[in-house]
Amino acid sequence: MPRSLPTIELSGALCCPPVAAGVVSDADALEVALRLKALADPVRIKLLSLVLAAGSVGVRNVDLARELQLTDATVSHHLGQLSRAGLLLATRQGASIYYAADRRALGALVRVLDPECC
Amino acid sequence: MPRSLPTIELSGALCCPPVAAGVVSDADALEVALRLKALADPVRIKLLSLVLAAGSVGVRNVDLARELQLTDATVSHHLGQLSRAGLLLATRQGASIYYAADRRALGALVRVLDPECC
DNA sequence: CGCATCCCTTGACATATATCGAGGGAGCTC
DNA sequence: GAGCTCCCTCGATATATGTCAAGGGATGCG
């Protein structure tokens, strides 16, 4: 799809009928694909597992950067991807921002791929 | 991690402890990410829905190309991505190849992301 | 055999993206 | 205010990827 990149609001609702329930519309395919793309990176998978491990308290950029051996700029980039996909919840606490996983969003995405699973 | 691209055998087993079950190893993160990457494209989502709709019979490259308004070369590329990720089953029939979805593989991938779902 | 169909591979091109260094805004503590 | 920490944005760079046109191997049919 290099045919111009559509940018789309994903932070909102959770989208779409199941992929197995009939042919997907272009719009729905795009939305699902963009959310999956947000997850489709090794660093972001590790990031997600770290964020999940931190529970509802959340984790900060710095801590993740140290753990993953990456610069804060890079971690910020990845957190942005996940946040824009609606998979993270961020809460400010003074100068810090604590990121937690939005398990409902993750579940919704998963359910689009395999509705029979749940 | 553009620091060189690792290529990995994915057609095989289905991999990995759940992402929510603790911090993921580098190898597991890579495997999950690569499988997700195979799905993280609007065309491939539509492709998957078409293949799923065809059931166990399967669909041919040509039919998909016509449906998606893409060249057979492009469809071949996408089918390759999905196949290499172990998400498709291909059966030859004369000059044609029929592609069907491997629902077990899809389910396994989904379960890594949200084990509580199943 | 000759021809059509189906599928794949290759090469080229434009776009997308992961990473970093550098720099700066915002908040805290002294 | 001075200095520190945390986080982000921007610009640069290398890599990855989606698409097509062109061409060829395989199979099947007349």
List the topology elements.
Two copies of one chain form a homodimer.
Chain A: H1 26-39, H2 42-53, H3 61-68, H4 72-84, E1 88-93, E2 96-101, H5 103-113
Antiparallel strand pairs in A: 1-2
Helix pairs in contact in A: 3-4
The structure holds a DNA duplex (30 and 30 nucleotides).
Helix content of chain A: 40-55%
Question: CATH homologous superfamily of chain A?
Answer: Winged helix-like DNA-binding domain superfamily/Winged helix DNA-binding domain
Question: How would you classify the quaternary structure?
Answer: homodimer
SSE string of chain A: HHHHEEH
Specify the CATH class of chain A: Mainly Alpha
What CATH architecture of chain A do you see? Orthogonal Bundle
Q: For the largest beta sheet of chain A, what order do the strands appear in spatially?
A: 1-2
Measured between the Cα atoms of the first and last residue of chain A, the distance is: 31 Å
Global geometry of chain A: elongated
Uncertain spans of chain A, ≥5 residues at pLDDT below 50?
A: none
